[in-house]
Write a structure and sequence with these properties.
Layout lengths: L4 H4 L8 H4 L1 H12 L18 E3 L8 E5 L1 H14 L2 E4 L4 E4 L2 E2 L9 E2 L3 E4 L2 E14 L4 E4 L21 E2 L2 E7 L2 E11 L6 E2 L12 E7 L2 E11 L4 E6 L12 E4 L2 E3 L4 E5 L2 E2 L1 E4 L2 E3 L12 E13 L1 E4 L2 E5 L4 E7 L3 E4 L2 E4 L5 E3 L4 E4 L2 E3 L2 E3 L11 E3 L2 E3 L13 E5 L7 E3 L2 E4 L3 E5 L6 E4 L2 E4 L8 E6 L1 E4 L1 E5 L9 E6 L2 E2 L3 E3 L4 E3 L4 E2 L3
Parallel strand pairs: 1-3, 2-4, 3-8, 4-8, 7-11, 8-12, 9-13, 11-14, 12-15, 14-16, 15-17, 15-18, 16-19, 17-21, 18-22, 19-23, 20-23, 21-24, 23-26, 24-27, 25-28, 26-29, 27-30, 28-31, 29-32, 30-33, 31-34, 32-35, 33-36, 34-37, 35-38, 36-39, 37-40, 39-42, 40-43, 41-44, 42-45, 43-46, 44-47
Antiparallel strand pairs: 5-6, 9-10, 46-48
Length: about 500
């Protein structure tokens, strides 16, 4: 699935140049013409005034045996002092991550920084396909501050910081501008962590992150594989961002974030996050999991999330939802030609305003929807394909229906969609306080439910130009119904029959 050439220019074309910076503005325009087939970046796309450092010149071995944390920390300190710079990481496997203990100091295990910078302008991390791997044997979770032994709190919600053991973030960048990270693998090695008890509301909510980005502008992450981290593959945030603040552009290109314990990508604040041909898969399928275990979590913490855009991305086989937008002042994201595959639970959990899905493939039950008198803020699925199709031998998540919407409010819309229900109902609209819309859809029923069951429930819905088809063997004798209450039927509604009927009728349903 190639990025649409005209859409690359949408990265920042509508934003003021002074807000974007000359570098990212030119990058956005050039992507629209030069990188339509396979986006890449060149070394001259940002101006770096600081030093160019090779991590091996600073003592790193990259042999997969010696701990190279000190070399990465030294590189960060030099770039910090210079206000910017370029870090080259030659091919190799670099063990990183340290913890120390000081007598009578808490917590018992104190993490050391790996690569951490702030307030620089112009930073390139060039991985040359190198691997940073978390050193084995680090502690993670709750540990007794006196003995260092694992501590298991009696109930959830335990947050005493004196018990917290974290491993930090491999790459931590705060308050910086004009940053490129590329051609790098970050292995969180979560199977080698020594686990303590739970910490936080659920699971182990402590830093163990591949790339942590806070309060940055003009960031590009390209060709990065970040996986098996104890928390998130990537975390992007901005503290206390307001509605009228300038954009905070971040671009992800061909990033793979998988087998992390809490999230593939946590977006907790910012304006202008773009992702192209990325994969946020298999969260919670590594050594352990912490909720929500989603591919993508849009959850503004003390901030807002606005102007998100994902094209050609995957959110597949996560232990939690493929995509969740449920809390904070967030949502406001377009998904174009993306794949969502809910295996253990929901494929899409869309409970915030401004979520639009265009030409997406959605496997497994989708839930919620945000209704609003402003149709632009209501959840919209446009030309999407819904199906309860198994993910290999692991199955697919089926709830009461393939599309389950019990949300208040108007204008939740399914337009031009195909819905194929193999072993569950097609629709479950269970509220009449607000009108939903089903238009120009094709619905295929295949569920062999008991005779007399209903295969779709519509309450408070407007339906038009939609075909309800069925796929049963000729000898099938069971009869099913489409349950319709307080429904407005527009033109072009067709029920093929003979097994499934609408109020006892098949064929054209009278408006």
């Amino acid at each position: 699935m190639e990025p649409h050439p005209k859409r690359w220019g949408e990265l920042l074309r509508g934003l003021p140049r002074r807000a974007c910076g000359r570098w990212l503005w030119s990058l956005a325009i050039s992507l629209g013409t030069v990188y339509a087939a396979e986006p890449t970046l060149t070394a001259t796309e940002i101006r770096v005034t600081g030093p160019t450092l090779n991590v091996k010149d600073l003592g790193a071995r990259g042999d997969g045996e010696h701990n190279d944390t000190a070399a990465f920390r030294a590189a960060a300190e030099q770039i910090q002092r210079a206000g910017g710079g370029r870090l080259v990481i030659p091919p190799g496997v670099y063990l990183v991550g340290e913890q120390s203990h000081e007598e009578s100091k808490v917590p018992y295990y104190k993490p050391g920084k790996i690569f951490s910078v702030c307030d620089v302008d112009g930073l390139v991390i060039e991985g040359q396909r190198a691997i940073l791997r978390l050193a084995p044997g680090l502690r993670y979770g709750s540990f007794d501050p006196r003995t260092g032994k694992p501590f298991h709190p009696p109930r959830g919600g335990f947050t005493d910081p004196t018990y917290a053991a974290s491993v930090g973030s491999m790459i931590q960048i705060h308050r910086c501008r004009n940053v490129v990270i590329r051609n790098l693998e970050l292995d969180g090695n979560n199977g080698s962590l020594v686990l303590g008890g739970y910490f936080g509301d659920t699971g182990r909510q402590l830093r163990a992150i591949g790339i942590e980005l806070y309060n940055n502008r003009n960031v590009v992450i390209e060709q990065v594989h970040t996986h098996h981290h104890g928390l998130d593959g990537i975390l992007i945030g901005w503290h206390e961002l307001k509605e009228n603040d300038p954009p905070t552009p971040h671009v992800l290109i061909r990033v793979i974030s998988e087998y992390n314990s809490r999230q593939g990508l946590s977006w907790v604040g910012g304006r202008g996050l773009r992702a192209y041909r990325c994969k946020f898969n298999h969260t919670g399928r590594g050594a352990f999991r912490s909720a929500p275990s989603a591919g993508l979590d849009i959850e503004a913490e003390d901030s807002i999330c606005r102007d998100g855009y994902f094209e050609g991305c995957e959110f597949v086989n996560n232990a939690g939802c493929a995509m969740i937008a449920d809390s904070g002042d967030g949502g406001y994201t377009r998904f174009v030609q993306c794949t969502f595959w809910g295996v253990s639970t929901w494929s899409t959990w869309a409970a915030k305003p401004g979520l639009v899905f265009e030409d997406c493939r959605i496997y497994g039950s989708a839930v919620h929807g945000y209704g609003c008198t402003n149709a632009e803020l209501a959840t919209r699925y446009l030309r999407c394909h819904f199906e309860d199709k198994d993910y290999g031998t692991q199955g697919v998540y089926r709830s009461a229906a393939l599309i389950e919407c019990a949300s208040r409010g108007d204008h939740i819309t399914y337009d031009g969609c195909t819905v194929i229900a193999h072993r569950t109902r097609s629709f479950w609209f269970d509220r009449v306080d607000g009108q939903k819309f089903v238009r120009n859809c094709r619905v295929v029923h295949r569920d062999r439910a008991p005779d007399g069951a209903f295969l779709a429930l519509f309450r408070g819905v407007y339906v038009e130009h939609t075909r309800f088809e069925e796929d049963y063997p000729p000898e099938w004798t069971a009869h099913y119904r489409i349950e319709a209450q307080q429904v407005t039927v527009g033109p072009g509604v067709w029920v093929s029959g003979p097994c499934v009927h609408w109020g006892g009728r098949t064929g054209w349903i009278r408006p």
